[in-house]
Amino acid sequence: MSRFCSGKTDLMYLWNTPVVYHCHHFNLFLDQTIEDTLGPQKSYELRSNVAYRAWYQLLADAISNSDVSTPIEKLTLAKTIFKNMGHGKINLFWETNKGEAIGEFLHYGYSWKQKYGEFVKRFHPADPVAAGFARAAIEVSFNLPTFSLTTDETQCIAIDSEQCYFTIDLQSSPKDEYPLVDREYCENLEMLYRPGKYEEKVREVAKALKEFTAGVKGDERGLVEAFGVYVTMHLSNYYNGITYETLKYLEENKPFLTKPFANLAKESGHVCVFNTFGGILTSAEWESLYGKPSNDPELLISYLTGIARALGFGKWVIKDFEPNKLLVLRTYINYEAPYYLARFGHCKEPNNFFVRGASQAFMVLIDKLDWESEITLNDELYRKLFKEGIGWKVEETKSICTGSAYTEVVVTRE
Amino acid sequence: MKLKKSGGCFRNIRWMLDLEEETVEDFIEKIKKSSLFRETVSPLGDRLLRFKDNDGNEIIVVPSTGRTEIRLHYLIPESERKAKAEEILKKLR
Fold first, then answer.
1. Are residues A20 and A236 in contact, defined by beta-carbon separation less than 8 angstroms?
2. Whether residue B6 has pLDDT greater than 80
3. A84-96 pLDDT, tens per residue?
4. What residues contact residue B39 under an 8 Å CB cut-off, 6+ apart?
């Protein structure tokens, strides 16, 4: 797989398609947010359609840049990409006008079962991302017209099946032909980057982690188990598609739900930072690179910002930082803004929800955790930190999406 | 040497090893001589050592800090993981 980490933007690409690393806690939380907002059926449709578009972009790109020509070779490449990105194992079958896909250890369904299976009964399938992949992989591999297939997930491990099963039918699906961002678009956005505080350390951390993650790929199950989480390399156009298409729908149809939705989208940043960033900082791998973290707030904020860059989140910069008091974090580019700009143009209200939540979570982790003691990252600790009074408020004072040169968030004591 | 559950979300899959009186250098020496584990390539080189047994269970050692972990193979059923970690501990003693 051809991964490219841009030194200019700190965005990441697989061939020319923007990707980022996110863990299963974040993935499940964001998908659940969409499901709770739109309902199971409508949200599954949206998520699988957005996934289809995003996968199609990646697979067409990958195939055109690889030495494959037959449908079987293309299909094999597609499945390998899916597996290496940590999305699980999927087998695809296609004959004339009908096909099927069988998934094992699919990231969403499997990790949902691991996280919630003991306590929650699920009634709706959990793998629209794999459904979108199956459509895209068959269309690309067999040179079928775009939007010519539909999929239906009839069995899902998250609802107690042994495996996930999808039917694939030759039946045209709704054409959503809005533009998706690619490497050329993102890298050519105007960016007035100015280094911030602790820049040297931030860069050093980003570089070391990028080197470490270069060799990370799915195991025999097609899962990436690292830092105490299941990690995926995932399509930025998927995250942004499901978030901003839902936001737009709410603005036009249910404006009273816009604010609660924005708050949940922001909370996805808490979930990510707590689990993935926390998992990285408490891992043996981190300890081998930088030692066990201390309670030095300046070091911690440098680490967290460097990790964000390494995961492909964009050019995150510490504009100002006063321990126990203030964080001003700028993103001269982030993975959220390019999609919104390309799809909708400028908007009136700042909307880089993930940056907001992540920055707020940075201050919570620095302020509330004793890094020199043993830290167990579990739901109980998450609730204690983020549900029993966060203690920090965040405001997105500038946003690339409203026409500013950068997104800026200010985190202060509540 | 004793076992302590590691704080991760994969239930019972990672265990911290408290080496107690044994130094990390001695432990590394011992495990390198052991026929049960073989050293595998680590992306972090000498900063993080990895040893694997035939079932895919790993011992992770950070020589600079002495942190030592058992990482069980993911295909071991959850109900059997604690016993497996204890079995590995016995072999390491």
1. yes
2. no
3. 999 999 999 999 8
4. B32, B49, B50, B51
What span, in angstroms and rounded, lies between the C-alpha atoms of A26 and A238? 13
CA distance B60 to B63: 10
Alpha carbon A315 to chain centroid, angstroms = 16
Give residue for tokens 């996934």. A51
Question: Looking up tokens 């302590």, which residue turns up?
Answer: B4
B62 to A287: CB separation less than 8 angstroms, yes or no: yes
Interface subset of A 352-381, CB within 8 angstroms of B: 374-378
Low-confidence ranges of chain A (pLDDT < 50): none
Sequence-distant (≥ 6) Cβ neighbours of residue A302 within 8 angstroms? A198, A201, A202, A205, A318
Pairing of the two strands A314-322 and A224-226: unpaired
d(CA B69, CA B62) in angstroms, rounded, equals: 9
Do the chains contact at B67 and A287, CB–CB below 8 Å?
A: yes
**Per the CB < 8 Å rule, is B7 touching A212?**
no
Q: What is the dihedral of CA A226, A313, A76, A178, to 10 degrees?
A: 150
| Helical segments of A273-386, H only | 278-281, 284-290, 297-310, 337-344, 353-368, 379-386
Q: Mind listing the domains of chain A with CATH numbers?
A: 45-170 (3.30.1380), 183-413 (3.30.1380.20)
Strand, helix or coil for residue A286: helix
Q: What band does B8 get if pLDDT is binned at 50, 70 and 90?
A: low
Alpha helix locations (H) across A214-311? 236-253, 258-272, 278-281, 284-290, 297-310
